[in-house]
Amino acid sequence: MTPSTAVTHIGYYCGRFGPGFWGEPLNSLSNFAFVLGAVIAFRFWLLSQSRDPWQLLLFSLAASIGVGSFIFHSYPVPATLVIDLVPIQIFGLTALAYVCLRYVGDVPLVVEG
What we know:
Blueprint: H1 3-10, H2 25-30, H3 32-47, H4 53-74, H5 78-104
Helix pairs in contact: 3-4, 4-5
């Protein structure tokens, strides 16, 4: 599918100025903030005493959000839409699991009668 066909199929959205790789420059470039944030968080994690593996997983997923969104916003086709959305969903579910396990702890999920 050519970029112009992809834009027609996906539609003009999110500041897309036209077809082509740099048709959506602000969204494409802003996704590097996810990668940069993940790198900064990882460096702090390395200096940390706890080194929680869940946090490492969340940093990795945040970086994958940036990469996946960059790919989609640079080349919007249905396949790259999946590359954009799946890491976001996995990150959200992983963050929810992390919060539940860390802050809810040993609270039983089922109340026995």
